[in-house]
Amino acid sequence: MSNTYSYSDNKIIQKANLLRQMKLYPFLRPIEATEGATVTVGGKRQVMIGSNNYLGLTHHPEVIEATIKAVMQYGTGCTGSRFLNGNLSIHEELEEKLARYIGHEAAILFSTGMQSNLGALPALSGPKDCLIFDNENHASLVDATRLAMGATFKYKHNDMEGLEEQLQQASGRFKNITIVADGVFSMTGTIVNLPEVTKLARKYSAAIYIDDAHGLGVLGHQGRGTLNHFELTDQVDFNMGTFSKSFASIGGFVSGPKEVMDYIRHAARSFMFSASMPPSAVATVLKCLDVVQRDEEIHTKLWSNVKFMQQGYKDLGFYTYNSQTPIIPIFIGDDIKAMQVTAFLQENGIFCTPVIPPAVPKGEALIRTSYMPIHTKDDLTYVLEIFAKAKKTFQIPTRQ
Ligand SMILES: Cc1ncc(COP(=O)(O)O)c(C=O)c1O
């Protein structure tokens, strides 16, 4: 065996090992069972406030039934790319239904959200094009810029003056200019300033690509997302979404003008050279789409729980970044403290994860929490009780 690979002096591995010794390593916890709002870890039931299961649909009886039925009808996998042998009629049905739901002409499915960005953005950004990029965009968008032949220029998070400066500089130098931003930023729950982005896009003849992984299913009428939330769907060229969050499965899509979607179908390498979404996942998403468009209770309960927790944390004196979404980040500050608090919460039956540098700036570690309609008020009251204890025990500041 080769001796070439050694990581004992790698800084990340050293830090991980140190945290393991201190019994503070918060990642890769094996979950033994899950009921959606609760999970079992190490034989103990925990309230789950660390997922992206924003609508709690992973355990919805109709969704489970549809998923099983698809396995019986189509088998477990497609064993090939859509392009060749892996294109089922239900893939096309889902694309049509998603396009209608979002309010765009057409949609194209990918096998994950990450693959959607890795495929679509490089297809849209050729050598004569450029991307103008919020500097807190998701890692999958960052990686997509590395695959794109076009240039990328960044502006400070949600800073519209910074965006305009970049647009001014790019104007006239590129064939296509595309502004790229998350709809809901995944760590802090901030919503993109879409009204201003669309104004600037019009002024500089730029296109807009929104990654709405965390807005889809949550914001807007029946969960149509950030574009619908601002009633600006017709002003946004491309909308990307993932099924790994509200839609309880795995897979992703991009929607936009029909001709461009057809081009992406023939140019996106992660679409052409990777196997298609399994039938079970397609059926899950089809059923989720059906449920969110007819069951109003889901959103009523979701927002009732979110408001309850926003107020609860505020009353306890936590800083929650003025989040307006089911993602409620809790400011901690120091990263070791964030891991100590996470371990404390875990010992007390609460599952959530810390967000530490480099995912956030140094000194701004936080605990990312999120809420769903299937949490009971008892679960949530319990979570607030334990957070109150954690605040005292670890002297969590309101803001540094
Ligand atoms: C903003 C954003 N975009 C894209 C993705 C990738 O989605 P997927 O998990 O479907 O690959 C994520 C997942 O965390 C995300 O948060």
CATH class identity of the largest domain: Alpha Beta
Please tell me the total number of domains.
2
Counting DSSP H or I runs of 4 or more residues, the number of helices is: 14
Low-confidence stretches: none
Summarize the structure.
The chain has 400 residues and is of the alpha/beta class. It has 14 helices and 14 strands.
What does this protein structure show overall?
The structure is a single chain. The protein is an alpha/beta fold. It has 2 domains: 11-48 and 296-394, Aspartate Aminotransferase, domain 1 (Alpha-Beta Complex); 61-294, Type I PLP-dependent aspartate aminotransferase-like (Major domain) (Aspartate Aminotransferase, domain 2). The protein contains 14 helices and 14 strands. The protein has helices at residues 11-21, 61-74, 89-102, 113-124, 139-147, 160-170, 194-203, 226-229, 258-267, 269-272, 279-294, 296-316, 335-347, 377-394, and strands spanning 33-34, 38-41, 44-48, 106-110, 130-134, 151-155, 177-182, 207-211, 238-242, 252-256, 327-333, 350-351, 353-355, 365-370. The strands form 3 sheets. It has a 7-stranded mixed β-sheet, sandwiched between helices. Helix 8 links the parallel strand 8 and strand 9. Helix 6 (160-170) runs parallel beside helix 7. The radius of gyration is 22 Å and the shape is globular. The N and C termini lie far apart (50 Å). The model has no long low-confidence stretch (mean pLDDT 96). The chain binds pyridoxal-5'-phosphate (PLP). Pyridoxal-5'-phosphate (PLP) binds at residues 112-114, 138, 140, 182, 186, 211, 213-214, 242, 244, 252.
